[in-house]
Amino acid sequence: MTATRRSAGPSGAPRLMLPALREVYEAYVREAEGLPGLPGPLQAEVWASAQAGALEAAAPHAEGRRAALGDLVTCLRAAGTPGTRAFLRVLAEIGPERARPIAGRAADSMRGLPEPPWIGSVGKVVPGQVWLIQEGPLDGDRLVCEFRYEDAGTAGMHALAVRLSYGDAPQEVVIVGDVPALMTAARQAMQAELCVVQPYDPAAVGERLRAALNATESFPEDCYPALPLARHRAQLLPSP
After folding, report:
1. How many Cβ atoms sit within 10 Å of the Cβ of residue 195?
2. What's the superkingdom here (predicted)?
3. Could you tell me how far CA 135 lies from the centroid of its own chain?
4. Which of 81, 143, 155, 211, by CA, is between 20 and 30 Å from 162?
């Protein structure tokens, strides 16, 4: 993702491809100052995913999304703060795939800034058990994919939960921090004969989720905040 044409901004401001969104990017810069204070990598990933998802939801087409992401990286680098560098580090690991390399290079260029203690764990997760939850023919399939951070054991467990309607169109995309509570509630519903819960082949789920989450059509509005992180996690599931 490279910029060959950028509009000149005010004195000292970075040149942007979409200068009309300058105030939006500046809001991201301000919000990033709270990022290093988050308690761990999952909270940071969820936060950064929501920011990138909001840009995707607002962009009218793929070219606009690429331009907005390029501008965002430019503004974060120009700000030169610990928060914006942390934001770039997270985007380099779990952000939209085309933005990851430029975010990583931008973060690398911002030397001498302190980093949060969890930064090395961002994106370093391994997949675990996968579950299929079916509540009825009209509800579709709810796929729950467990993950954990490589260096955190069960303390770093979380899950990607995606509800797919008929035709595998995503209807709900969420990141679940309390996996035991989720599965306990699902098993209680199963005992009450409200749903079916069963293990599912991770490779089959990975194929379904990658196809569904990378579709070119628009998604329900509530899906966008978790969408970048969901795509990252789906990439880590095995292939058939």
Report:
1. 18
2. Bacteria
3. 26
4. 155
Pick out the chain residues at pLDDT < 70: 1-12, 60, 137-138, 153-154
Distance of alpha carbon 94 from alpha carbon 92, whole angstroms: 6
- Inside any domain, residue 1: no
Domain assignment present for residue 115? The answer is yes
Q: Angle formed by the axes of helices 82-94 and 41-58, to 10°?
A: 80
Distance in angstroms (rounded) separating the CA atoms of residues 35 and 176: 20
For 23-33, what is each residue's pLDDT tens digit? 999 999 999 99
Residue with tokens 């379904």: 208
Residue pair 190/179 in contact by the 8 Å Cβ criterion: no
Angstrom distance (rounded) from CA 76 to CA 107? 9
- Site of tokens 């069963």: 198
User: How deeply is 177 buried, as exposed, middle or buried, from its count of CB atoms within 10 A (0-12, 13-18, 19+)?
Assistant: middle
SS3 237: coil
- Is 10 within the bounds of a domain? no
Query: How many beta carbons lie within 10 A of that of residue 3, not counting itself?
Result: 15
CA distance 95 to 69: 10
**Among 120, 149, 167, which residue terminates a domain?**
120
pLDDT per residue as tens digits for the range 86-136 = 999 999 999 999 899 999 999 999 999 999 999 999 999 999 999 999 987
Of 120, 153, 173, at which residue does a domain stop? 120
